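Hi R.,

Here's the chain you asked about this morning:
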Amino acid sequence: MPKKLICCISLPPATILSVPINDFAEANEELATKSTDYYYSCCGKNVCTGCIYSFCESGNDEKCPFCNCDRTNKTDEDDNKELLKRVEVNDAGAIFVLGNCYHHGDHGLQQDRAKALELWKQAAELGSSMAHYNLGVYYYEGGHLKKAKFHYEASAIAGHEVARFDLGCIEAASGKIERAVKHWAIAASAGQHNAMRKLIALFEKDVVSRESIDTTLTAYNNYCAEMRSEARDAAISN
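And the predicted structure, written out as tokens:
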């Protein structure tokens, strides 16, 4: 499941005869940044937002969809206590979430960017693809390209499609177009709409072949269609 929801127009598989090259599934710019899951500190599980929506619609809006824990009247302090229990047992997801809380100053915690960085490093060591991605962004913005690539690559290998796209951008900026195309093709096949845009632009410049673009476009559209559901669409629209 992608970390950002691709809300797109469903199209048939792309072939030379069925779909014009520019008619690929467009992601809604507002919805493409919405998270597809939510972390529950009670059980340490990330649950699909579509599943959460369906669970709430069935009258269970104050319970955890996974462990059925009653979340009624839970305060930030209660959530933080649960989260810290998960952190103490080296739950990578909990450590990553706690890092985010410190980074943004959420859940009643005072903003502490240094603490956030420390927690992301810890979560990355435990295998969190999201922590690796955040570290990649941090180091890239700080001008530490080598460290940024290391974390982007670790995140991409773990299936983070945006990290894969960013790797392509780094390779393209250094003039390594073939490597960039490979990264973007993998990212686009996992529903990353910006990667698909990059490949379309390169196709129009005769850098990418029609056969290659058709194959990637088919994978892109199929992936987007598979990720769609009425519950997910409803969840991000509310």
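Residues 7-19 have pLDDT under 50 and may be disordered.

Let me know if you need anything else.
M.
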